[in-house]
Amino acid sequence: MRDAHVVVIPGDGIGPEVVSSGVEVLYRTSELYGPGLRLTERMLGGGSIDRFGEPCTDEVFQDALDADTVLLGAVGGPKWDDAQAKFTPEEGVLRLRSGLGLYANVRPVRVYDALVGQSPLRSEIVRGTDLVIVRELTGGLYFGEPKEMRMVGGEPAAVDTLLYRRSEVERIVRHAFGWASGRRRKVLSVDKFNVLISGRFWRDIATEVAGEYPGIEFSTMLADSFAAALIQRPTDWDVVVTENTFGDFLSDEAGVFTGSLGMLPSASLGDGSHALYEPVHGSAPDIVGERIANPIATILSVAMMFRHSFGKPEAASAIELAVEQALNDGFRTRDITEPDAYIVDTESMTEAIIARIEGPKAR
User: Fold this and answer.
1) How far is CA 226 from CA 82, 212, 264, in A?
2) SS3 for 100-156, per residue?
3) pTM
4) Exposure string (b/e) for 317-339, b if CB count within 10 Å is 16 or more?
5) pLDDT tens figures, 74-95
6) What domains are defined for the chain?
7) For residue 221, with 0-12 CB atoms within 10 Å meaning exposed, 13-18 middle and 19 or more buried, which class applies?
8) Catalytic residues
């Protein structure tokens, strides 16, 4: 197998700290399972604005287009929160997602037994939570046109357009069924069927697509009802598919269950070979340089990379098991600390996980 070309984008804030951990795990796991690696480091986000005047240069975009996959740290921060600015750091990420055809954002949410006490939900409710939220990523309110300020009835008004084409709904729902086929074989589609024409459109198409998968249980729910049910019964759900805006809100809600956003990986995928892997958390500028950032979300994003971009499910499982064992052995970064835990810095948590990654012969 040829070497895998990975574009590494440390990003802003704590991004470089956690991406460094991810790269260490990437190299170690590659040594054990393959493939060989070729890494190219590039700049994107706020740092790119400072240096090049834009959040994603054409060179970085082309590198991402030519690579097999991208590992991305967090971008943004208060430094670039200027409403009058020409660009925002996040526009760099949006360019990559759109230009690479990455229409599906996949967020696994798993509550580890060792951390069940960190969840804001009662342990008897949240224990065993293991779901995946599949969010449509390149359509809906965030991308629809027109998107503008205008005058309506003589006063200023703002317009955003919620637009979905049939093909966009079909492909994201099929993507969700693909995930469910390798899990517990249940798909829930979330919409606002009762008040939005786009919601009725979404539900009709999702129901039609579900007919192609008779071996997978399918159901639908209104977004507001699901927001409540997700808290009441988090273990009931397997794969949840929804449009861009609802997916943004609901995946952040589910992310709280783990006790820290530092535990949550994600992947942005499409129909082609391109993919982008990144932790869910933000750039956390308040802790930059303190060596306390939790690297687990980035490390688990690397596990997703091995599973879905490199076709190495055993390698992915080895990383995931190493994370679980490190937690079971009491290692904690400050965001997930608890009484009697062994509080470690970013590098030490990374080392603890790497030490527990077993090769294929040992497994």
Assistant:
1) 35, 24, 20
2) CCCCEEEEEEECCHHHHHHCCCCHHHHCCCEEEEEEECCCHHHCEEEEEEEEECCEE
3) 0.93
4) ebbbbbbbbbbeeebbbbbbeee
5) 999 999 988 788 999 999 998 9
6) 1-110+259-363 (3.40.718.10), 120-258 (3.40.718.10)
7) buried
8) 142, 192, 224, 248, 252
